[in-house]
Amino acid sequence: MKIRRFSTVDSDFEVNLKDLLAFETAQDDSIDVVVANILKDVKMRGDAAVLEYTNRFDKTNATGLAELEISQADLAAALNGLPADQRVALQTAADRVRSYHEKQLMSSWSYTEADGTLLGQQVTSLDRVGLYVPGGKAAYPSSVLMNAIPAKVAGVQELIMVVPTPNGEKNQLVLAAAAVCGVDRVFCIGGAQAVGALAYGTETVPQVDKIVGPGNAYVAAAKRRVFGVVGIDMVAGPSEILVICDGKTNPDWIAMDLFSQAEHDELAQSILLSPDAAFLDQVTASIEKLVADMPRKDIITTSLTNRGALIQVRDLDEAAEISNYIAPEHLELSLEEPLAFSKKIKHAGAIFMGRDTCEALGDYCAGPNHVLPTSRTARFSSPLGVYDFQKRSSLIMVSADGAQVLGKVAATLAYGEGLQAHARSAEYRLKK
After folding, report:
1. Residue 101 known to be catalytic
2. What's the pLDDT tens digit per position in 125-180?
3. Which one of the listed residues 240, 263, 329, 359 is annotated catalytic?
4. Quick check: is 329 catalytic?
5. Fold of domain 4-23+237-366
6. Which of 37, 126, 194, 228 could form a disulfide with 162 if both were Cys (CB 3.0 to 4.6 A apart)?
7. Contact by Cβ (8 Å): 345, 244
8. pTM (2 decimals)?
9. Does domain 29-104+123-232 bear CATH number 3.40.50.150?
């Protein structure tokens, strides 16, 4: 395997870094055309369109969408049928994720000014949310936990999950996760047609207020197109990890941490920053040694060859600067004093501190959400959380005395903008 290696002292370092991070995020026009037609069809024909696409793409033969809904009894049966170790692990992860997210709840507040005017903020939850979960063999129960639990903690009244079941294949761990999280309804549909059903509503699938959850290129394109009709969480790119190491961690650990993202898919990105050239040599040797036994060896090799890199920095301060430029989805600080060093980090989806804190723990059970901004969007966005399922309304109750002061201010500014009705509306409240 030939993984890129370069140094910040190289004259072409900035060019190499930009080339490494370059990722074509532009949407495939052919996919967009297909998705646009599917969404239009679902909007017009509802159940009938969703059923046709589901039978075609997932090779099912349902005669109605009602057949594709999984009952609460079946969800409970999936949970009860799990091997004991899986059930305990699932429940433990769910409990930790719930405990963390309960601390994110926003509160309503208000204050009253001297003249009796009340100002504040009222926080309410979304009414209904749609959760897209990949299905078939590529099934992720952890995605159910990370999306459903914060929604339920926020107080969302109804959570509708959609999950494709190619050839009728249902993943029992995914269904069990839905039971643990209290998902209200589950439909065995996927793709752009499922996104359309959630966004527009059909005779069987209720319209939601927001759609969250990962999916393939067709799902991502559909989420882009329905944004505005409903809210969406984000349109995520390939998974990525950046490791900053002082050279004192077991190189096998670091190699496997790089693998943990590379095995997602060929476009995933794994980068290591270290000031220790000899340590980079050791990690290179560990990569060559360990990759041979990995079941997803081919995916890991392609990912690391095309989008991975080992970068030598002058010192750890420079590593922090580069990290803030990259704004990684996952950032591991494999250092002696990671908590102190984390104060230098401004942009990262999640920061994993210390030699024992591998990113995989965050994917499943640490507690914080694993739905994170990718492709440098951590510069301006945050992990999914309870706040994504709550919204704020401003509270304004102006007293009669307050209206005398604010009315004059508003009228003056309104006249300045040429909006006479605004001005007179305020002036009507002024005492003669």
Report:
1. no
2. 999 999 999 986 567 899 999 999 999 999 999 999 999 999 988 999 999 999 99
3. 329
4. yes
5. Rossmann fold (3.40.50)
6. 194
7. no
8. 0.93
9. no
